[in-house]
Amino acid sequence: RRAAAGAALLAVVALGGLLAWRTCHREAGGSGPVEVRFEVLTGDAGIETFPSLSPDGEFFVYAKESGGDMDVFWQRTGGGNP
After folding, report:
1. How confident is the model at residue 19 (pLDDT cuts 50, 70, 90)?
2. Residue 61 has pLDDT above 60, yes or no
3. What is the DSSP string of 45-64?
4. pTM of the model
5. Residue 69 CB-density burial (10 A; 0-12 exposed, 13-18 middle, 19+ buried)
6. Spatial CA neighbour of 39 closest among 11, 17, 62, 1
7. Any residues with CB less than 8 A from the CB of 9 and at least 6 apart, and which?
């Protein structure tokens, strides 16, 4: 249940970022509909919070409780470790 809540939070943040980007980069004539695809980026158990995407979209970071402490994790959006 906690993992589902974390995934839902990540999806909401990603959708908000996409909508903000589209609003800022919309051209006068519009280019028509854009296909949007969501993907699960982490497989960790527990809740992941405070996600942030790098400017080039290649990496993302998030915070997660690990061993009783909050730690920051850094991952490639395409998978694998940096």
Report:
1. confident
2. yes
3. SS-EEEEEE-TTSSEEEEEE
4. 0.51
5. exposed
6. 11
7. 47, 48, 49
